[in-house]
Amino acid sequence: MALRVNFAHPLRSFDAAVQLTVGAGTTTALVGPSGAGKTTVLRVVAGLLRPRQGTVSVDDHVWLDTRRDIDIPPERRRVGYLFQEYALFPHLNVLDNVRFGARNGAPVDELLERFRISHLTRARVHELSGGERQRVALARALALQPAVLLLDEPLSALDAHTKATVRTELHELLRDLDLPTILVTHAFEDAAALADQVGVLVDGKILQTGTASELVASPADPFVASFTGATLLEGTASQAANGLTEVVLDTGGTAWSSDPGQGRVGVAVYPWEVSLSRETPDDSAVNHIRATISSIVPLGNRTRIRVGPVVAEVTAASAERLGLREGDVAVASFKATATRVISI
Amino acid sequence: MVLIIGFGTPTAYWVATRSGRLRDLVVTLIELPLVLPPAVAGIGLLVAFGRLGLVGGTFEALGIEIAFTKAAVVLAVTFVASPFYVRTAVSAFETIDPALPAAARTLGAGPGRVFLRVALPLAASGLGAGAALAFARGIGEFGATIMFAGSLQGVTQTLSLAIYEQFDVNFHVALAISAVLVLVSALTLLSVKLVTRWRSASTSPIPFAASTPRSS
User: Fold this and answer.
1) Nearest CA in chain A to B103
2) pTM for the complete prediction?
3) SS3 state at B203
4) Has residue B207 been placed in a domain?
5) How far apart are CA A39 and CA A46, in angstroms?
6) Residue of chain A nearest B209, judged by CA positions
7) Which domains does chain A have, with CATH numbers?
8) Measuring CA to CA, how many Å separate B81 from each of A25, A204, B32, B137?
9) Total domain count for chain B?
10) Is there a domain that residue B117 lies in?
């Protein structure tokens, strides 16, 4: 089974134009900022929105073809749609929610069992926790025995503690199901954890598609770079005699990169490639930025420290050893090979 | 009452799920009786359904007489009270999270089933409140009824009309009927309050729903 989507539709301030193929058992994540048109893609696949023009098909089943005036209504498309806030029916109990769309012979009991909600069948929706709600919504979507699975921000309504557990569960579920799945999220880490392919959607267009590590290794666009967590230093690039690219930064100073580049560029560097010290070290890193520490954020066993324009992520232990405090002056160092030059 | 709920509910659902010029036109038509002086409504109904009225002639040819009959009372009360029901019903349907009917559609429910199994139960208490308001307004209907149906004792005389008539004849009877109506109105209001409270206690919305920004 493969899902093929290709449509164009005007949105408020731009036209969405998306082309996407998702194979059976494959999860494609659509990531991007709010209002980029991510949910629009799901609505088109589900049949809740008829685009100005386009096609949607699953194998030989054509669900939408505006040119041939085919538009199968949502109730006949067999789409398992997990809504952003789960959209459980508040007037029905858990069992009736799960049974709402169940096909004849759907293994409702097995689903209740699998999602550990068998003991909650008589409970009302408002009595459930966020994680339970998510599992009920998944069970309800799968009772339909769908041909396609659509997940709209499946983790955003959960608190940080529940999120990690649910993410692991969801990952196992997606691996077991042999369905083409589209996952919409604004968090790159969720996409990286759950999806085989990640498409970065900005202003209604897919800027880049690849595996999460491909996007990190070679972001094609400043947005993709900052979205995957990189710091972007803007400046003007020119070819230097030593074979490296010299970028005169707008914030002052110079950055060196092994990537080629010319003219207005952004230098992308990931926080985990940046090391910190008190004084300029004498090591292989050619890039040193000496600046004031503006923020120190502990993240479990790591610490995120902003030095001037650069963000560094160091282990909590080394942050402690350096004894850095906000307002101190520190040197951020990174190798020329750790940078990516992106035209802007 | 049956007429109001029977026709009012689908109309309200239609209005609540549409947008555009046609919807605005329908809303205006629905709300017209609300701003119209009742006496004008009575005259209007008389001109339409009276013996010499626009469609009254047709009805009479079929042997149906409307003006100054019980049917006229029903028609007058329906005309004046229905906006109270329909307006409340529209807002009851509009407050339903649009994701719920959408979810029902993806779960295999056609538009009819969405209406019966999702929209109607979720709007039920709002519809109840609207019905109570319309009922209260209907009981007090005076102007349109007296113009269109008259005040024939035992035929078209409503309690409100009876109060007016007995006011001149026997003040105590008028007072007694008034007392009954005070009781009925108070009970109606009380039931609306109770239903509203029961609803907010039992189907309180999801605590953290809609707090996160929606992407589109």
Assistant:
1) A87
2) 0.77
3) coil
4) no
5) 10
6) A85
7) 2-221 (3.40.50.300), 230-343 (2.40.50.100)
8) 58, 48, 11, 6
9) 1
10) yes
